[in-house]
Every structure is written in C-alpha cells, then in structure tokens.
Amino acid sequence: MQFPSSDTDISRSSAAARWREYVPYYKRNLAVAFPVMLTQLGAAIVGLADCIMVGHYSTTDLAAVSFANGVFFTFMVFSMGALMGITPLVGQAFVQKHDERVASLLLSGLWFTLLLGGATTLLLAACVPLMPMMGQDPRWWRRHGRT
C-alpha cells in the first residue's frame, strides 16, 4: 500500500473519491436533462435557421424575424419555468407510491399547460399592436399589411 506523500496528494485522492461517488447521480441527472437540453437547442436552431433564410431576403425582414424570435423566446422561457414546478411534485408523489396523486398531478399539469399555452398565445398576439411603440421599423408593418 502506498501512502500519500503530502497534504496535496491527500486532497487530490479524496476529491477523486468524492467524484467517483457522485458519478452515478450525474449520469442519471444527465439522462433526465438531456431531452430538455435538446428542446432548448432545437428552439435556438429554429431561430437561427429563420434568420439565415430571411437574411437572404432583406435586412428589414431579418430585423423583424430577429425581434420576433427574441420576444417569443422570452415568453417560451417564462412558460417553461412555470411548468417546471410540476416535475418535483409528480416525482415526490411517484416515489411515495401515491399513484392517484401522480395521475391527478399529471392531469392538472396537462390542463395548466393548455391554459398557459393559450394565455401565452394571447399575450403574444397582444404584443403585435405594440410593435411600433417598441421602435420597430414601420416599413415592415406596411409591407405585411399592418398599420
């Protein structure tokens, strides 16, 4: 058996031991988080693709799409944050084997998602008449039939 030669060797070996102890937890967390990460990456890629395609058309349209993506992403992140509150409740009920509570929370979560989606859609639609007050170029509104 080899003994550590200094305090630094002791701290390194204990840090490595702690890391190995938590690796299974990190793997499980990443397995759960990976779909969420892909969803957010997908939303960003869609916005990028929109900008790339519209950028070849005109700078006014590119500015409009970029601004709209920024507004939409703000609402999307708010909605995701509100919906993430359901996850720990369902997880707690599931671990405690309260199947009826799990079903109830999932159904409530579905309704909450539908209501939040509708409210978010209405809020986004309500932003449309406010675009000129946000300093957006009036040429874009005239081109697309908005006044």
Give the helices and strands, then pairings.
Blueprint: H1 7-55, H2 59-83, H3 86-95, H4 99-127, H5 138-143
Helix pairs in contact: 1-2, 2-4, 3-4
Structure description:
The protein is mainly α and 147 residues long. It has one domain (7-143). Helix content is 81%, strand content 0%.
Report the β-strand fraction as a percent range. Answer: under 5%
Largest sheet: none
What is the residue-averaged pLDDT? 81
- Classification by helices and strands: mainly alpha
Q: Summarize the helix and strand pattern as letters.
A: HHHHH
**Discrete helix count:** 5
Rounded radius of gyration (Å): 24 Å
Q: How many domains? A: 1
> Which percent bin holds the helix content?
over 70%
Gap from first CA to last CA: 81 Å
The low-pLDDT segments are: none
List keywords for this structure.
0% strand; 147 residues
Brief overview:
The chain has 147 residues and is mostly helical. It is built from 5 helices and no strands.
